[in-house]
Design goal:
Elements (H helix, E strand, L loop, with lengths): L7 H10 L3 H14 L12 H18 L1 H11 L3 H6 L5 H25 L2
Helix pairs in contact: 2-6, 3-6
């Protein structure tokens, strides 16, 4: 059964432990590019740096490119009900929470692909 991560740090640790971290980065790059939001995380990026850069990217998209942000969430297939549960009063916290939801969905795709191939 898919292990639902509690937070970003656990998710990234699980990805590394299962040797799927590089696949996770590739999936993120692929989906951002499908959404025409060119992002190219190098495969050598550390989990901490990935977390920071993804948070910054989501934050900028919410602030300056909201339509593209919504398109990205659609392409990645982030749960609309989970997005609606978030409190949008603080954009920094919102971007952090959305980053986790994005990572969680991308991790789910990679994990299922490996385990149900």
């Amino acid at each position: 059964m898919f292990p639902i991560p509690e937070n970003t740090d656990f998710l990234l640790a699980d990805a590394e432990k299962e040797n799927l971290y590089l696949s996770l980065i590739e999936q993120i790059n692929k989906d951002f590019n499908l959404a025409n939001e060119g992002i190219d995380f190098p495969l050598s990026i550390s989990p901490d740096e990935l977390k920071i850069q993804l948070h910054e990217k989501i934050y900028r998209m919410i602030q300056y490119k909201f339509a593209e942000y919504l398109n990205l969430l659609y392409i990645i297939d982030v749960s609309e009900s989970e997005i609606k549960k978030l409190d949008g009063s603080d954009l920094v916290i919102l971007a952090e929470q959305v980053s986790f939801l994005v990572l969680k969905r991308e991790w789910q795709k990679v994990w299922f692909r490996k385990n149900f191939k």
